[in-house]
Amino acid sequence: MRKLIGLDEDTLxxxxxxxxxxxxxxQELADEAFADLLKKHGVPIDxxxxxxxxxxxxxxxxxx
Length: 64
Description:
- This protein has 64 residues and is mostly helical.
- The chain has one domain (9-63).
- 72% of the residues lie in helices and 0% in strands.
């Protein structure tokens, strides 16, 4: 799925430079940034992460 995100020119220039420095595409940088944001807020990134969090939650509930 494609969505448009507006960036100011300075931010876009810096992201493009970072991509060149890391040999990564803008999409790869965006994927990393969004994954970090979801992780920061405790939102599972994928099924494996969701299962891991569910198992950890079940274990902590059993201990109480």
